[in-house]
Amino acid sequence: MSSSYGGQSMVAPLRRVLVRRPGEAFGGADPAVWHYTSRPDLAAARREHDALVEILRAAGAEVIEHAEPQPQRADAIFVFDPALITDQGAVLLRMGKALRRGEEEAMGRRLQEMGVPILGALHGEATAEGGDLLWLDRRTLAAGHGFRTNAEGLRQLWEILDPLGVEVLPVELPYFGGPEACLHLLSLISLVDDDLAVIYPPLLSVPFWRLLRERGVQLVEVPEEELPTQGPNVLALAPRKALLLEGNPVTRRRLEEAGCEVITYRGREISLKAEGGPTCLTRPIWRE
User: Fold this and answer.
1) 2, part of any domain
2) Is 8 part of any domain?
3) Is residue 279 situated within a structural domain?
4) Where residue 127 sits, what CATH number does that domain have?
5) Which letter does DSSP use for residue 89 in this model?
6) pLDDT in the model for residue 1
7) Could you tell me the residue range of the domain that residue 160 belongs to?
């Protein structure tokens, strides 16, 4: 594996990460169009994002800015979604949210500038977003099948990843808030160690829950009142070192009881208003 990209893991120590500082498109987002709870305050959003970047740096990660202008794309701050990083390079996805189309090509240009080769790209009718893709281990990619990631997207991912020895494991997602809402697989589960996951069980499929149990994964359950505040959306900075949106005290306590160090960040503008947690705001490029 290259020492500048790769790491088919959600939990290995984060060494290199891409972010995008909120721009005019985010600050000017019409909540009705973008499915935000209200219009973000751009100055406050930038302060929150700058503080998030400092947390990432303090954890030992090199933080790289994805600054290419994308004037009409409010959601472009959620850099996790347009691409999947493998040990052999990046797979450019195809956004299920039509307003986000074009983010993939911009991401591809930035990744190539950083020395990350493009392994493949989804095309045609395929859709898949990074928020639906979860490395259970180096050889197993769980892939949410819902409104953002479709069957053709799963098929093309399998086609690209099978030669790498990676199994794509489809996980059915519920209807829940409907086609316009953002419900990704990572809205319901985050790994914080190879054998420890934060989950919201009421919306998780039974076969997937059973699979986690069979794999010996300890499950930290998020209470119902902390689903809207993105309790299940946790970024592992390293094994059992978790970054969590503030305002999730029960999830935090349960993580700490499971042996985790928990760091929280303020995300009133960048997360709560725009439905995107710490995993969404970061695109890990290299996990050691």
Assistant:
1) no
2) no
3) yes
4) 3.75.10.10
5) E
6) 44
7) 14-287
Tokens of 182: 């953002």
Q: Rounded distance, CA 168 to CA 140, Å?
A: 6
Helix/strand number for the chain, H first, E second: 7, 15
At residue 183, what is the residue type?
Answer: L
- Residue-by-residue pLDDT tens, the chain, 288 positions: 456 999 999 999 999 999 999 999 999 999 999 999 999 999 999 999 999 999 999 999 999 999 999 999 999 999 999 999 999 999 999 999 999 999 999 999 999 999 999 999 999 999 999 999 999 999 999 999 999 999 999 999 999 999 999 999 999 999 998 888 889 999 999 999 999 999 999 999 999 999 999 999 999 999 999 999 999 999 999 999 999 999 999 999 999 999 999 999 999 999 999 999 999 999 999 999
Structure tokens at 191: 């790994």
What is the model's pTM?
0.96
> Looking at the domain assignment, is residue 24 inside a domain?
yes
**Domain count for the chain:** 1
- d(C-alpha 203, C-alpha 94), whole Å: 25
**What would the two tokens of residue 119 be?**
């392994």
Residue tagged 């074009």 (tokens): 102
In order, the DSSP letters of the chain are --SSSB---SSSPEEEEEE----HHHHT--HHHHT-SS---HHHHHHHHHHHHHHHHHTT-EEEE-----TT-GGGG-TTTTEEEETTEEEE-B-SSGGGTTHHHHHHHHHHHTT--EEEE--TT--B-GGGEEEEETTEEEEEESSSS-HHHHHHHHHHHGGGTPEEEEEE---TT-TTS---GGGTEEEEETTEEEE-GGGS-HHHHHHHHHTT-EEEEPPGGGTTTTTT--EEEETTEEEEESS-HHHHHHHHHTT-EEEEE--IIIIITTT--TTTT-EEEEE-
